[in-house]
Amino acid sequence: MFEAAFEALSIVLDPGRIPFMFLGIFVGLLIGLLPGLSGTVGMAILLPFVYGMDPYTGMAMLIGMAAVLHTGDTFPSVLIGMPGSSGSQATIMDGYPLARQGQAGRALGAAFFSSMIGGVFGGIVLFISIPLARPIVLAFGSPELFMLSILGLSMVGILSGNTPIRGVLVGMIGLMLGSIGGAPAVAEYRYTFEWLYLFNGLPLAVVALGLFAFPEMIELLAKKQSISKTAELKGGWVHGIKDTITHKWLVLKGASIGALIGFIPGLGGSVVDWIAYGITKQTSKDNENFGKGDIRGVIGPEGANNAKEGGALIPTLLFSIPGSGTTAILLGGLSLLGLQAGPRMVNEDVSITLSIVWTLVFANIFGAAACILLSKYIARLSLIPATSLVPFLLVILTVASYQSSRHFGDLLLFIGIGLLGLVMKRLDWPRAPLLIGFVLSQATERYLWISMERFGFSWLLHPGVIVLAVIIVALLAGGYIMKRSTEKANPA
Amino acid sequence: MSKEIKSILFTTFLFIVFCLMAFEANTFADKAKFFPFFVAIGAAFLAFVSIVLQTIEIVRSNKENSIDDVGEIKKVLKYVLWAVGYIALIYFIGFMLATIVFLLVFLLIESKFRIITTVLSTALVVVGLMLFGNVLNLYWPTGLLGISIFS
To answer: Do B39 and A392 touch (CB under 8 A)?
Structure first.
């Protein structure tokens, strides 16, 4: 295992691949920095560019982006009090008051250093899980894989917030969109209406771009959102790093929570930092200053949201279960690179998995270092008004969409799905379940069909199937209870 | 119109779409039919339940429903039209020319850039696109009229 890890290290450090990792880091930091844009958008922007790349280079770029997203998103959270992404909501609670007190540098320093430690911790968790997960993964047949798809689909309820029926309904839209094109069991094309563009199904990158990026751009323009006041960056990031070292156990606690919750598909993302914040607050002495500018309120959630990425990659890579929109698109990226998530990732393609671990570690270190060094300049970027930023973003997204199948249908689909996403966003309908349903549609149908063909209905009595059914029920119930407890801890 | 009413209308739209998809799925071969047919039927049922629940909630609720800001909706529609117009322009005159026209017009009218800033920004984007296009082997839509510049 260690021999393979060192081999993967030499692959990752290949001079021809490092620039692509840095490109991913750059995009991740930029996306995190720009409020309103999520990791899903970043992943969707990069996804079309992995066409033709070798798997190591493609994954270095995609993972580089995902790893540092929750490092870059700290800027708007601390400086403006506006989450750069859903993973940095809780950072606002104490980061913004610290910035108002003129201690933005301290808060940013602590946040970046905690993020770095959390991210490296997440990479280590992923590394440790490889030998442990291997025998489990190898025991999986088509019935168990079908149940895993159901497990992924069942997470739409948790991703739906307070509207589970809407979440399931949206997930079903994703399933139906995923069924467009060739059927897996028989040579028949469905819902294509004789339009050639639809014969290969809808491209994931375009669906993701339309669903998430388009509505954000329109909303930013309509609300003329720009940062109203310049938050002055005062020195003190060294002070923040010292704070993090002082509260080292708090960072590890946050990182452990992040990695653990990240492992639960669908529960991470917007929930993980709140849970980390709540537990940090509840288990800290003299916690009356939380919410008014306590540095521990920054360290806990920032350690968690970066560690979450390592945890979230375990079910994504080893079991094909995307826990978020970002990992859902990552699954698509694996397909584009000629890889398939599942047992192969711990056998034939173990070097890819190990290269992902190294990329996670390096990206977090470089990302945090870059943020600390460039914080003064990056902060100015978030002051750009929407009308000056969005036209350029629209051009980039149009280019990115067109690379999927190089057919004008990509652009029509981008606008069509974008309008659907805009309506859903304005009506407060959850959008992430659609993506999960879309990504898992083909796998669900394929494994169900194979299971029925091979075993009839007897596959329902397979021990693995029963265990997974119990896990699905337990996770749904557990997720519900954890959410309730988080809501109680953070009633606002 | 309140957000709650719009949500019911949207759910009704989904209900109709799911019903049509189930009807269409019924025409597929057996092995291609089972998944989309049952998902569409289930979704249509769920959409119906959702419509009923939302309607009951509105009827029971005594508080005033949230009304969308009409001005903001107009702005949303305006920027949707900008995006749709850009894509339509690409269809007719190709990506590069459409991008130049779009950026020049948008930056001047909406962003209120000065002419020199607008021209420089647009030129920078075109150079960047060409650079990335060459490095990453990107393709642009050519357009119905067959006008090609910088290709």
So the answer is: no
